[in-house]
Every structure is written in C-alpha cells, then in structure tokens.
Amino acid sequence: MTNADRNYYIRLNSNIQGLLSTEDAVIAEVNAETAVLEETSNVPQTAYINVNKVPNVRVLPLGTDNFGRDVLTELIAATGVSLQIGLVAGTIATLIGLIFGLVSGYVGGFVDDAIMFVTNLFTVIPSFVLLILISFSISQDQRGAVTIAVVIGFTSWVWTARAVRSQVISLRNRDHVNLSKLSGHSITHIIFRDIFPYIASYVIMALILQISSGILAEAGLSILGLGPKTTDVPTLGLMMNWAMIYQAHILGKWWAYFPVILTIALIAFSMNLMNTGLDQVFNPALRD
After folding, report:
1. What is the H or E stretch that residue 275 is in?
2. Given its phi and psi angles, is residue 279 left (phi above 0), alpha (psi -120 to 50 degrees) or beta?
3. Which of 89, 141, 224, 230 has the most CB atoms in a 10 Å sphere around its CB?
4. Is the whole model's pTM more than 0.90, yes or no?
5. pLDDT grade, residue 96 (50/70/90)?
6. Nearest to 71 by CA among 195, 234, 255
7. Between 145-154 and 127-137, two packed helices, what is the crossing angle to 10 degrees?
8. How far, in Å, CA of 261 to CA of 41, rounded?
9. Which of 237, 275, 257, 287 is nearest to 83 (CA)?
10. Which residues pair with 247 in a beta bridge?
11. Quick one: which H or E segment has residue 37?
12. What is the average pLDDT across 202-219?
C-alpha cells in the first residue's frame, strides 16, 4: 500500500462520524487548470442512490442509504462497533459461565445444586426473550453499545457454565487432582492450577462462539428497535433496522441491506470456521 493510499484510509477512519452525518453529501474535485476545489455533484440527505447511479463510483462504491450516507463507510464503522459488542458480550458470558462451571463442577453438593437451579431458571426462559425484556426495560437514551454488550453477556452464559461443569466433573477425580488434595492445596489452587489448564482450549473455543452469538444477538435486538441508540454509533443491526424502517426491502434498494446481511453471515461463518480449526488443533484425533 502506498503512502497516498494509507493516508486516504487514515482520513477516512478519522472522519467516519462526519461522513455518517445527516447532512447532504457533497462530492467535489480539484480543477486541474485552476487548482480550485469545485463541487461536481450533490447527494440529497434523504435519497437512496443506486450503485449504478452514483455520480462518482470511486467515492460511493456501495451507493447511499435513505439518509444520503455512504453505505460503505457506514458498513466499515458498523462492523467495527458490532465486533466490539460481540467481544465484550462474549468475554462477559464466558467469564461468568467459566466461574460458575468450575465451582459447580468441582465443589458439588449444595453449591452445585444452587448453581444448577439458577442455570435451569435461565434455561427455561429463552435467552433472547429475556434479552428483549431487559433491553425493553432500559430507556433508549441509556442503551449505548456497552450497555447492550453487558446485557447480552449477562444473559448468554448458561450453556458455557453447563459445558464447563461437565468437563470439570470428568477431571475432578483424576490422580493429579487427588494428589493435590492430599498435599493440602486450597480449592482455588486446585481449580485454577490443576483443572483449568486441561479445559483452557475448550474455553477459548467457547469464547469464539460467544463472540459470534453476541454479534447475532445485537443484530436481532437492533432489528426489533431495542439495540443501541441510533444517535450514538452505527452497528450492523442498526443498519438493518434503518433499511427495514425505510422499506428498503420493499422498494428494492438492495444495497442498503444486502451488504449488511453478507457481512453478518461472513463474520458468523469465519468464527465457526476458526472454532473448527482450533478444535482440530487442540484435538489431533479429529484430523484423521
């Protein structure tokens, strides 16, 4: 990449919020003879512009949405925000599920019963329904990207906890664990030094799936109008919500929603592909 190309993307990244504003988009070029910046065309604020009808395809390769905003720039910004939401939500869900699963699987008894009771409560109520109820109870002004990520994380840990618990139960009576007990090591030492390393690879794969689930959950919430507030940051789900509200699918404005659908599908596919690859790395028997 040349310095000119690099500087172009730096300027693009630093001016994303300006490009996503609700004002008219003005396309201008420098006159080769006078060296003066002259306006060549104007994209109205509330107009869909087809990819094939863009005055300058290099500037607007995916056309504009109903607000006259560049779809490509919006898509780049939204993908980054959605990935951040998925990462935060996936990390929270994995940590909660990991802690509950480790404690429940190793300690057993009343502690196991209590944790499993809470887990079963979350299992009975579908996580997405619970997610909708919690998001609906939060006012739109308070529904930022971080808030949505935290809500998703606190409602998506159940299957991770159950999976980790089953792994710990199969490990807690191993010889090295019993030897650690006889040596007088604490429960914390045994859990994190003698058991956790054996399930670390499984936890990494669970984290990847949780990140993917977090991105899909945010998209689902935003389509229903329960995602981050529209005046904050763009997300893939919000782009779908805007396309649906302004009837892009009915009007045949495919460039307003199809790139978003394709991006979400590619992210989910790549996450699952990464998970499958790591599974083969951590479990050599699967390669045969």
Report:
1. helix 258-282
2. alpha
3. 89
4. no
5. very high
6. 255
7. 140
8. 30
9. 237
10. none
11. strand 37-43
12. 92
